[in-house]
Amino acid sequence: MAYIGVDLGGTKVHTAKIVEQSCEKTCRLLIPKNGTEQEVLNVIIDAIAQVIDHDVEAIGIGVPSLVDQQLGIVYDVQNIPSWKKVYLKELLEVHFGCPVYVNNDANCFSLGELYFGAGKETNSFIGLTIGTGIAGGIIINNKLYNGFNTGAGEFGMLAYLEENFEYYCSGQFFENVHSISGQEAFEKANLGDLATLSMYTDFGKHLGNLIIQVLYTYDPELIILGGSVSKAYSFFKKGIYSSLEQFAFQHSISNLKIVVSDDSEIAVKGSAALCYQ
Description:
Layout: E1 2-8, E2 12-19, E3 22-30, H1 37-49, E4 56-63, E5 66-68, E6 73-75, E7 85-87, H2 88-96, E8 100-104, H3 105-116, E9 125-130, E10 134-140, E11 143-145, E12 159-160, E13 163-164, H4 165-169, H5 172-178, H6 182-190, H7 194-218, E14 222-226, H8 233-244, H9 250-255, E15 257-260, H10 266-273
Parallel strand pairs: 1-4, 4-8, 9-14, 14-15
Antiparallel strand pairs: 1-2, 2-3, 5-6, 6-7, 9-10, 10-11, 12-13
Helix pairs in contact: 3-10, 6-7, 7-8
């Protein structure tokens, strides 16, 4: 069976034809900055058209927003200003003539890890995507827990210090607190810059405090980190475990596994996995 996965971001759309465990065809296109609702939709349609074949049975799409899962309506898509309320499922089903499933992108990441990645051997885990923002997907007994609006796992929106966790636990941290881009910080850390390495340790401490909230509420055996910032895990791992020393139930920490996703295609695979649910 073949499915199409679509990973929609604020600046690009990534599509792939998924057959079993692999991507047979892929396409990446840029989203027009400040494009109209229709202009953005046209790019998505074009990206799907470049990978779809006659044997494709359904399309799954992950979006950075809350979703009416039944109707496939997306609301207030992050970094796409024109997408306030888009009937995405209906529009794509009419165009391509096959079932379309829509969900939050962090949920799709966790589904991808469940079916294709580090979560395959684990019944229940949390996936955390760390990029421009931070959000989670919750897997319980091999099923995705969405919440009513597909918003379960929005840990980044929890209040923290004078802002929220997203301010300190995503790529925003580097610009918000240190006035440096995440990419520049990563490059300096790779060169061994001590000030930047200390910055990453502080970042890890904040992320560790977020993970403590996850542990108190869901008590997972596994946390999988994904997204662009997770590539710097070796720089902020120490900070995470420094904060976890404050967790009340240290036996849980000894059993906890934190791993980094190692599949660059996991987001688009996870979007296709919506078709399996």
